[in-house]
């Protein structure tokens, strides 16, 4: 059986031929991101990771000791082992996020006047050249531009101009949808429980105020959507108008309580350590050596007996 150390499993939504292509990252336009493309549809590649249990044996790099085993359909086809269990998943990428990032940071180009689809594509190529510009289908462009642009129709031809208001509203709708999902499924979602840890106070069992939970859920939803697909500058636009004072003050209080608890716990450890050390010294002092009386030569009972004889 063949063992492969470098190959990875890629799970794709459908069979067919895919091409690897470099695309500007919508999170940081100065960086490129490898994606797949098929029939004009971009697909992002994400790695599925897991956290191994602390009791499981680990490699030197901290990874779990496990592999993927593949067996042939019949005995004539040899199987193989992939030493790494990490899997890659290809999922359709909505290019509207990329359009928002590029157009928001180039408003002097995309908000001056209405331009045709061909002009939009030409401008994208001038700002961020690459094969990706023409590899994306016109259908994908039209669908994304309709969500973030004002449009006019002249003699059957569409013209586009970037609308910051529409772009912000589009992202806010995604944030609201994610927040509604968290609110509806909060008890079932490990992700929700993960960010809720920020407001759990180990020194206080009282219920967390509903307003704190609501602000935390909204803030986390903004972070998930924006940190995944948008630049920090555009994220600031989405956060505008929201007041997170209650949750931020609550988190600050929780952090202070945690630090105070750590100080108390460390003090208790020192007390226990000091007490244990003192008890050991006291026990050692109580153990005294038994004195054995020495008998002078010629003074013992047997010595007297032998002298008589």
TrEMBL record:
One of its GO terms (cellular component) is nucleoplasm. Pfam families: RNase_H2-Ydr279, Ydr279_N. It is found in: Nucleus. Residues 97-238 form the Ribonuclease H2 subunit B wHTH domain. GO terms for biological process: RNA catabolic process. Gene3D superfamilies: 1.10.20.120. Residues 17-94 form the Rnh202 triple barrel domain. InterPro entries: RNase_H2_suB, RNase_H2_suB_wHTH, Rnh202_N. Keywords: Nucleus. Non catalytic subunit of RNase H2, an endonuclease that specifically degrades the RNA of RNA:DNA hybrids. Participates in DNA replication, possibly by mediating the removal of lagging-strand Okazaki fragment RNA primers during DNA replication. Mediates the excision of single ribonucleotides from DNA:RNA duplexes. This is Ribonuclease H2 subunit B. It comes from Suhomyces tanzawaensis NRRL Y-17324. The lineage of its organism: Eukaryota, Fungi, Dikarya, Ascomycota, Saccharomycotina.
